[in-house]
Amino acid sequence: MPRIKSITSEEVRRRRREVSDRARAAELVLPHGMREMREALGLSRREFADLVVIRLTARQIADIETGRVNPTARTLETIGRIFGFRLGFVPCGSGTQPGAPFAWKPKPPTPEQSARLRARHAAARKRRLK
Q1: Other C-beta atoms within 10 Å of 21: how many?
Q2: Which of 29, 11, 19 is nearest to 83 (CA)?
Q3: Is 95 inside any structural domain?
Q4: Where does the record place Basic residues bias (predicted)?
């Protein structure tokens, strides 16, 4: 994965303002919003995960950013605190297509992902039955 080039403190401030403006306009939605927040700080996934406040692995950050997992409310609150955000509700249609019930819908898994998931569940069942 390419390393994010270092940015000036002025650039970080500008990016943080942009992210805050997008959040106020209800345009900052998961999973892409998480990546925008991280990139606004000029941090790689590993650097973002290493922040003492977050306590996540780089893999968990990647999974959230790509929509493979649904983070808990507590995780979202912790991450949002870095930007002075808090978790809340946004009226339907705000930041999305008009009338859309949710801001983000997960993509269905690919056949390969489904097969891996089935294999993992089968292995877990086997372990429980032992």
Answers
A1: 11
A2: 19
A3: no
A4: 117-130
Two structure tokens written together for 42: 């000029």
- The pLDDT of residue 98: 47
Residue 29 is assigned to a structural domain of this protein = yes
Check residue 102 and report its DSSP letter: S
Q: What distance in Å separates the CA atoms of residue 64 and residue 72, rounded to the nearest whole number?
A: 10
Domain annotation covers residue 3: no
Q: Which domain holds residue 14?
A: 9-88+107-129
What pLDDT score was predicted for residue 57?
A: 87
Joined together, the tokens standing for residue 116 give 């891996």
Count of CB atoms situated within 10 Å of the CB of 33: 23
Report the domain count for the chain: 1
Q: What is the pLDDT of residues 60-105, one digit of tens each?
A: 889 988 889 888 888 888 888 877 888 877 666 544 444 444 455 5
User: Are 58 and 45 a contacting pair, CB within 8 Å?
Assistant: yes
Residue 110 makes CB contacts below 8 A (sequence gap 6+) with none
Within-domain flag for 2: no
Instruction: Please report where in the chains the tokens 């968990």 appear, as a residue.
Output: 60
